[in-house]
């Protein structure tokens, strides 16, 4: 038998426990060309929230009664695909379940060869899609360079904490925005040049301006909303805005926060671009090599909020969406 978590009802605003339900069924069997994977680690990502609404997106919504969709890491335990033998570790877009069947066309499907001494969970965080997202956003979209001033929102989160560290490794001055003194203390421990508590700052624009008096070259945006509105007038000429996420609006996409400072795009000739990591497949080997080297040397420090057991997945996701977690939120199945 195999357990899974299905969508019981669509969230109205922030997700709640009764939106999810645990079910047990016979373990699925792979067809020709497919593999059966024993899921070991689930990745909790804000993008999952978008899948739970009945609205068009870059993927179809999760149907009521369907397994909740998300990135996962696991071990092939039955194979009808010679390219993915039993014992192979893989990560892909799968679901909140103890077992999933994957075809060769599974979104984000990659093989993983764990390095000796590296915790397997790291391959769903700093050495997985999270690290790749930070790398691609900074290099391919933000075009960061030594001497740039980089501002990162949700900087104590999964992608933000890595983006800030990578910015430092590339010679940037890095300013992190986070909610609460504890998260700001984490950013200072990671080597950020400045950490601003957006909840406590009476004037967020003034606080950022004090930390970056000559303006911001690159803004790595994980939240959108009022924070994006605040940053637009603080950008330097030809600044770049990396649109990685819109956390401020994930729980109320029917009434997104209006942005009143978009004219600054013209005033300062800014570039603002969204991206999906796997649209940049050509640079992922280079990104992975950098991440592997940095983590192995200790130059890049992964942060994780680890929950135990498949049954903990809803609580982990709810905590993530309430911004209560620090670093990459993972569930060890």
List the helices and strands and how they pair.
Layout (H helix, E strand, L loop, with lengths): L1 E6 L12 E6 L8 E10 L3 H5 L17 E11 L9 E7 L3 E5 L6 E3 L16 H13 L7 E4 L5 H12 L3 E6 L2 H9 L4 E4 L6 H8 L4 E6 L3 H7 L3 E9 L20 H4 L3 E4 L9 H14 L6 E5 L4 H9 L6 E5 L1
Helix pairs in contact: 2-3, 2-8
Q: Helical stretch count? A: 9
The CATH fourth-level homologous superfamily of the largest domain: Medium-chain alcohol dehydrogenases, catalytic domain
Structural class: alpha/beta
- Secondary-structure element series: EEEHEEEEHEHEHEHEHEHEHEHE
| pLDDT averaged over residues | 94
What proportion of the residues is helical, as a percent range? 10-25%
Low-confidence runs of at least 5 consecutive residues: none
| Main β sheet profile | 7 strands, mixed
What's the CATH architecture of the largest domain?
A: Alpha-Beta Complex
Overall, the morphology is globular
CATH class category label of the largest domain = Alpha Beta
Give Rg in angstroms. Answer: 20 Å
* Alpha-carbon distance between the two ends: 15 Å
CATH topology of the largest domain: Quinone Oxidoreductase, Chain A, domain 1
How many extended strands?
15
Number of domains: 2
Task: Provide a brief overview of the structure.
This protein is of the alpha/beta class. The protein has nine helices and 15 strands.
Characterise this structure.
The chain is α/β, with parallel strands linked by helices and 333 residues long. It has nine helices and 15 strands. Strands 3, 4, 5, 6, 7, 14 and 15 form a seven-stranded mixed sheet that branches. Strands 10-9-8-11-12-13 form a six-stranded parallel sheet, sandwiched between helices. The protein has a two-stranded antiparallel ribbon with strand order 1-2. Strand 12 (235-243), helix 7 and strand 13 (271-274) form a beta-alpha-beta unit. Helix 2 (129-141) crosses helix 3 (158-169) and helix 2 packs across helix 8 (284-297). It starts with a strand and ends with a strand. 44% of the residues are buried.
């Amino acid at each position: 038998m195999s357990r899974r978590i299905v969508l019981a009802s669509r969230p109205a605003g922030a997700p709640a426990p009764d939106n999810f339900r645990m079910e047990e069924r016979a373990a699925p069997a792979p067809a020709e060309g497919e593999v059966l994977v024993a899921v070991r680690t689930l990745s909790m990502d804000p993008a999952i929230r978008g899948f739970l609404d009945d609205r068009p997106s870059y993927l179809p919504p999760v149907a009521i009664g369907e397994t909740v969709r998300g990135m996962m890491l696991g071990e092939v335990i039955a194979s009808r695909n010679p390219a993915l033998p039993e014992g192979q570790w893989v990560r892909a877009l799968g679901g909140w379940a103890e077992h999933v069947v994957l075809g060769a066309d599974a979104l984000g499907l990659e093989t993983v060869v764990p390095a000796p001494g590296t915790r397997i969970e790291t391959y769903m965080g700093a050495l997985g899609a999270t690290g790749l997202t930070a790398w691609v956003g900074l290099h391919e979209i933000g075009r960061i360079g030594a001497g740039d001033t980089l501002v990162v929102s949700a900087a104590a989160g999964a992608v933000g904490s890595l983006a800030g560290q990578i910015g430092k490794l590339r010679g940037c001055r890095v300013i992190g925005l986070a909610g609460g003194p504890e998260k700001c203390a984490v950013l200072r421990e990671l080597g950020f040049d400045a950490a601003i508590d957006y909840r406590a700052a009476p004037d967020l624009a003034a606080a950022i301006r004090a930390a970056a008096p000559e303006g911001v070259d690159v803004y790595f945006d994980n939240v959108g909303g009022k924070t994006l509105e605040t940053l637009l007038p603080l950008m330097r000429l030809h600044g770049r805005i990396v649109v990685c996420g819109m956390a401020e609006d994930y729980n109320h996409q029917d009434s997104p926060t209006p942005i009143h400072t978009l004219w600054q795009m013209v005033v300062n000739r800014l570039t603002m671009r969204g991206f999906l990591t796997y649209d940049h497949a050509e640079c992922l080997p280079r990104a992975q090599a950098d991440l592997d080297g940095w983590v192995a040397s200790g130059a890049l420090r992964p942060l994780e909020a680890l929950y135990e057991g498949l049954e903990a997945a809803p609580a982990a996701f709810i905590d993530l969406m309430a911004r209560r977690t620090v670093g990459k939120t993972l569930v060890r199945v």
